[in-house]
Amino acid sequence: MSDQITGGCLCGKIRYSVNQPLQSIIACHCINCQRSSGSGAMHNAVAPTSAVTITAGQLKVFADTAASGNTLNRYFCGDCGSPIYSQRATMPEVMVIKVGTLDDSNAMKLVMNIWTKSARPWMYIDPASACYPENRPPKT
Ligand SMILES: [Zn+2]
Ligand SMILES: [Zn+2]
User: Fold this and answer.
1) DSSP string, 26-69
2) Tens-digit pLDDT profile for residues 39-77
3) CATH code for 5-116?
4) Ligand 2 ion: Cβ-proximal residues, 5 Å cutoff
């Protein structure tokens, strides 16, 4: 099980595992992610919901309204407040994992920045990464 990825919240009540590699980090600089993360951006990794298992604890959910008007469910630990993952109401097959909750994300790479039009001037954005002023364009 050495390729099992694990993570959890600050207080330790929420634990989860991912049974496939996570490599790419997408930083979202939208205002809602700034508020939710308490930081300049939320750092996300996309995984199929089928690959993720919540192994301990019960998540709370906040139904956020994204800039697109779509509902984005933000799941977090109700005890310590750590954001764990988010999920579009229309895309339950995909989970957007908050990379800071992984036990070990050292091998991952930040490859994309989205919603850079609301990025704060003090946030460093790697010019070699893919940058989009709003959402990433849909895959073709
Ligand atoms: Zn917690
Ligand atoms: Zn965002």
Assistant:
1) EEE--HHHHHHHTSS-EEEEEEEGGGEEEEES-EEEEEEE-TTS
2) 999 999 999 999 999 999 999 999 999 877 899 999 999
3) 2.170.150.70
4) 28, 30, 33
